[in-house]
Amino acid sequence: MRLARRFAGFVLVNVVLGLLLPACVSPEAATELAPTLSLKSIGGSRVAFQNGIPVPTFSYQPRRRLELGGRWRIQTTAMDHDLSLAVRSQSLNRLIADAAGREKTAFDDTRWATVEVPGSYDPPPSPSGNGAWYRKDFDVSSDWQNQTVTLKFGAANYIADVWLNGHYLGYHEGGSTPFAFDATDAIVAGDINTVAVRIDNPPWGTRQDIVPWGLTDWWNYGGLTQPVWLEATPAVYAVRADVVPHLDGADIAVTVHQRGGAAAPVQVGIDIL
After folding, report:
1. Cβ neighbours of residue 151 under 8 Å, at least 6 residues apart?
2. Range of the structural domain that residue 52 is part of
């Protein structure tokens, strides 16, 4: 009987400790990045927004497109994971100070190594759970002038902070989802542009606010793991089309985005195959 009571007490203590330990982490480690995805009610419909723009389609579209894949400059480095996951309204200045100029167009990265994008900077058996800075210079045609420009990423693992020509565009958390930024005000048509990306990939099991939290059966790849590209569109353009099929038909919702206040006629064409 005493042994049973002692065992029950041991189990109870461990359960209580298991519940209390998550609350005992440091305040900075407990902070989490705010979600960049939200739903807004527009015209009676719920529209998904991310980074200040409607969530676009990431499939190939018949519009101006500039592929940013290929060779990038890279510098692997140890990252401050608490800083990477701190709320950006409070941590952006510290993030820029930690960048030490790497986000700027004039930064000299000629001594950095090169890496292929899409890809990873820590394939097995390299140690995973580190970070890296990516940079790439590219030419933008002059006919991109007065266009709405979107910078799109297929995926980046795990936390990506993005600058274009020294302008901070925003961040994304999560290694398996695509994301995009409005790059219209940062792009320079007819000139050389520079994109800089800070990637932090915290080791699994070190924090409770990363996904996945613990061990899995796949390698923890870090880097720009999917394609990166720019798209140019008119000020008014179709962002995405969502088709929900039914047995007797389909619901088709087309989201049209207007950047700027000028009214313009829009013609939407749908091909039913």
Report:
1. 162, 164, 169, 180, 181, 183, 195, 228, 229, 230
2. 48-233
